[in-house]
Amino acid sequence: MISRRDYLKLTLAAGATLALKPDLLWAENKQLELITRTIPSSGQRLPVVGLGSSATFSRVASSNDQNALRDVLRTLVEKGGTVFDTAPSYGASEAVAGDIAGELGITDELFWATKVNVAGFGGGEADADAAREQIEASFQRIGKEVIDLIQVHNLGDVPTQLGILKELREEQRVRHIGVTTTFPRQYDDLERIMEREPLDFIGIDYAIDNLTMEERILPLARDKGIGVLVYAPFGRNRLWDKVKGKEVPAWAAEFDAHSWGQFFLKFVVAHPVVTAATPATSKARHMADNMGAAMGALPDEEMRQRMIRHIASL
């Protein structure tokens, strides 16, 4: 078993060969099935791993050299991914990704998930006109007449902004709507909104060392038929710090995990209520590695408990 670092070194070492035969590195995975999940409200199936555009993606999007992001988006699609999560608050991410997707001719291949929040993080009242203006700007940046998913970011003035999204869904300009939060202080509010509103999706934080969502939110999403996008499946930097210098356990091969990134992602998407996880990256080799978690087997519940115990022991 090799570490994520060694796995990625092999990817880089194969660079010249991959330029000629881009599928060589993944040849052994060709027989592995791409794992998909159904969106409860629409029946559409999505690959369980996608791409987020906060963090490093956002920082590179704001730079003068965006070639790396072009490679990331190309790799996402080449490896079977479709879900791309963004937001107007992620700097230049939404606009840059929209331009790159247009250049690559993959705009319609992507499942675009963006957000709206003109109320600011932590609440406050939104101006309906400002919210509509922000949404229309997203349509322009993405370059699609119908956006796959728009969510109210961090529960910002849900009555106003979710109300607008309901109208857009009724008008068939938006296919799915939802709300997001990664703030523990908002979990109770999230639960109440899930109980009373006709949501297609929620976006939440969930990781092998962050299991709070298993207590009430994920069971409620199952009961209400709400899709789930997972943000921060690597615990932001917590998990990488925890496994630094440590090898992936050999038994991870039982569920086709060959790096720590795949280990962490497979844990998350193995939960049957999770629709997709969308870790952010600005490196194509990380994108390819992440997509490996959407291939082959997933750990069963007994194995997931073993994974939790292993990480807790480090």
Keywords:
eight-stranded parallel beta sheet; globular; alpha/beta; 314 residues; 13 helices
Low-confidence stretches: 1-28
* Number of DSSP helical runs: 13
- How would a textbook summarize the main sheet? 8 strands, parallel
Strand order of the largest sheet: 3-4-5-6-7-8-9-10
What Rg, in angstroms, do the CA atoms define? Answer: 19 Å
Please provide the ordered H/E string of secondary-structure elements.
Answer: HHEEEHHEHEHEHEHEHEHHEHH
Classify the beta-strand content into a percent band. 5-15%
Assign the structural class, choosing from mainly alpha, mainly beta, alpha/beta, alpha+beta, or little secondary structure.
Answer: alpha/beta
Please report the total strand number as a whole number. 10
Question: Which quaternary structure do these chains form?
Answer: single chain
What is the overall pLDDT average?
91
Helix content: 40-55%
The rough form would be described as globular
Give a brief rundown of this model:
The protein has 314 residues and is α/β, with parallel strands linked by helices. It has helices spanning 4-13, 15-20, 55-61, 67-78, 93-104, 128-142, 158-170, 187-196, 217-224, 238-243, 260-269, 284-291, 301-313, and strands at 36-38, 45-47, 51-52, 83-85, 111-116, 147-152, 174-180, 201-205, 227-231, 276-277. Helix content is 41%, strand content 13%.
